[in-house]
Amino acid sequence: MEQKFCQSCGMPLTNDVLGTNADGSKNEDFCMYCYREGRFLQDCTMEEMIEHCAQFVGAVNEGLEKPITREEYIGQMKTYFPQLKRWRKTLTIADDEAMKATPVLANVKRLIANMADTLPIAYISSVDYEGFPWIKAMLAPRKREGIKTFYFTTNTFSIRVAHYKANSKASIYFCDTEGFKAMMLRGTMEVLTDAATKEMIWRDGDERYYSGGVTDPNYCVLKFTATDGRFYSDFYPRSFVIE
Description:
Layout: E1 4-5, E2 12-13, E3 18-20, E4 26-31, E5 35-36, E6 39-40, H1 46-54, H2 57-61, H3 70-80, E7 89-91, H4 96-100, H5 108-118, E8 121-127, E9 133-139, E10 143-145, E11 149-155, H6 159-166, E12 169-176, E13 181-192, H7 195-201, E14 219-233, E15 236-242
Parallel strand pairs: 7-15
Antiparallel strand pairs: 1-2, 3-4, 5-6, 8-9, 8-12, 10-11, 11-14, 12-13, 13-14, 14-15
Helix pairs in contact: 1-3
């Protein structure tokens, strides 16, 4: 069974340490030390929670072959905690004013858009029939709608399309090696073969890939819709949700 962790403090979750909801039922996301009777027990920031958890580095080291220092533990938590539900930032892509109120995410939209529009290569992932991830380098998306929807061209009869038809879970990744920045978006991938969508992103010269032109049966469109993501910039990773 997959190990679950408290989405507030990161401690391993077992049935005997689960928090409780307002109706007394068990909460599957938070531990009893963070969440009880439908509310958080500590009114704190993520940074304050990290400082609180750092005092337990000795207990953490009991399960490690090579002990880590308090500073190393804090560094690990700064990377991990932004992914937890309690601390995950929400990026409302239709509301620029709301996003400006969150300085740490103020440049996310610009970064994603700039990478998608300028980098020649994007990486996309699919999940195969055994649950393993497959990564593939692709030409940059032909079209995007904000930072939530991206369109790629590919071959209808490819293994990638077969993966997406069986399991739509996907991610796309942009990497700016010179700027030392990277962006991962997670979401779903649709395989589209309708004439309107194929026409929408067709370009002159695509005949070299699809000899039958825009109606070539081996030409299709991949439509990626993002739900959340993670970016690395200024030597620090951050996670966010796209709404």
